[in-house]
C-alpha cells in the first residue's frame, strides 16, 4: 500500500526529506475520501520503512497537522539507545512526533 507514496529527496543519519505523491495514490483516499490526507498509521509505516526500523513498542504519537498530497516533509531524528524520537516538519513547522523503541 505504501509503494509510490513518497520519494526520498535527501537522507542522512539524523534527518530525511520526503516528497509525498499526488492525490491519486490510494492511501490518500483511505481515510477521508473527499479530503485527501495521509493517515497517521501510514506516517508511522513510512518513517519505519525509511529508517529500516522494526519498532517493538510505540511510546508516543502526535499528529498535529495533516500531511497532504505533494507535501514535502522533513524528519529530525534523535536516537537514545534503543529509543528513537522523530519530529516531522512541513515548512519548518512541527506537524507530527513519533517515539518508539526498536529491537
Could you characterize what this model shows?
This protein has a single domain (6-102), classed as Thiol Ester Dehydrase, Chain A (Roll). Helices cover 11% and strands 47% of the residues. The chain has one helix at 40-50, and strands at residues 6-11, 15-20, 55-63, 72-80, 83-90, 93-102. Strands 1-2-4-5-6-3 form a six-stranded antiparallel β-sheet, covered by helices on one side. A hairpin with a 3-residue loop joins β1 and β2 (15-20). The protein is globular, with a radius of gyration of 13 Å.
Structure summary:
With 103 residues, the chain is mainly beta.
List the helices and strands and how they pair.
Blueprint: E1 6-11, E2 15-20, H1 40-50, E3 55-63, E4 72-80, E5 83-90, E6 93-102
